[in-house]
Amino acid sequence: MNASADILSNLMQCLNQGTIEVIDLTHPLGPATPMIKVPEGHGKQPPSTSLETISDYREDGGYARWSTLTTAEHAGTHFDTPSHWFTGGDHANATTDTISVKRFMAPACVIDCTDEVKDDEDFILTADRLRSWEEAHGAIPAGSWVLLHSGWANRFEDADRFLNQIDGVAHSPGPNPDAVRLMIERDACGYGTETIGTDHGNANQFDPVFPAHSLMHGANKFGMSSLNNLDKLPPTGAVIVTAPLKIVDGSGSPLRVLAFVPS
């Protein structure tokens, strides 16, 4: 057996023995899934997710049960490609069907800001906060995901609390432009969060506006939103798999995010 085969054999042995645990970082996708409310003047509202029965052996007889799924590319736990935002629209191989599959597996750096978010729903992730994390855990490695653990996943089943819009303004944590620039400087593969979108709830007040979209995708990098179970990941050491559906010319996709974590 060659060295590569040994590595894969050892991986399966670790999974079977439980020395590597697989953590699901995904929320269920269905009619109750909260959907983002697009700001006025920034496009159309997405549809709610729905399942409509095509046939069902429990009711119609026959052998099969299947349905028509109606949802948005950016619904529930989902992936943002560089082509999702106008700043990344000119990158080559930047859609769900053209991105190299190697880019869908990467280490994860988990920034735990749950205490700050408990005190301030409008918590801003700054470059200084990222540097303080690096002082404790080492520099963010090139090619890694930067994941903001805010505790926001606990709100998912209550759409109003999850969106947290007051008088038309969303209040949720996220990065400012300097934090996003630092992630890009570290050559992170992307930024992920537990909130409904990657940007801060009031990110239209930043310069540039919506930096987690405009800067990150402009740099040919990814985003993920509505993540779950980040509290089960260590600050470093996990590897996550983030493969979206292979939608032709897709700007994003719901996905099942899996984390491999040493027990």
Layout of secondary structure:
Blueprint: H1 3-17, E1 20-24, E2 50-56, H2 57-60, E3 65-70, E4 78-80, E5 105-112, H3 114-119, E6 124-125, H4 127-137, E7 145-149, H5 159-163, E8 165-166, E9 169-170, E10 174-175, H6 177-185, E11 190-193, H7 211-218, E12 222-225, E13 238-241, E14 252-254, E15 258-262
Parallel strand pairs: 5-7, 6-10, 7-11, 11-12
Antiparallel strand pairs: 1-15, 2-3, 4-12, 4-14, 5-13, 8-9, 13-15
Helix pairs in contact: 4-6, 6-7
Describe the structure.
With 263 residues, the chain is of the alpha/beta class. It has seven helices and 15 strands. It has helices at 3-17, 57-60, 114-119, 127-137, 159-163, 177-185, 211-218, and strands at 20-24, 50-56, 65-70, 78-80, 105-112, 124-125, 145-149, 165-166, 169-170, 174-175, 190-193, 222-225, 238-241, 252-254, 258-262. The strands form four sheets. The protein has a nine-stranded mixed sheet.
Radius of gyration: 19 Å
| Average pLDDT figure | 96
- Terminal CA distance reads 27 Å
Low-confidence spans: none
How many DSSP-defined strands? Answer: 15
Sheet with the most strands: spatial strand order: 1-15-13-5-7-11-12-4-14
**Beta strand %:** 15-25%
Q: Structural class given helices, strands, pairing?
A: alpha/beta
Profile the largest sheet. Answer: 9 strands, mixed
Task: List the quaternary state of the chains.
Answer: single chain
SSE string: HEEHEEEHEHEHEEEHEHEEEE
| Overall outline | globular
Q: What percent of the residues sit in helical stretches (DSSP H or I)?
A: 10-25%
Number of helices: 7
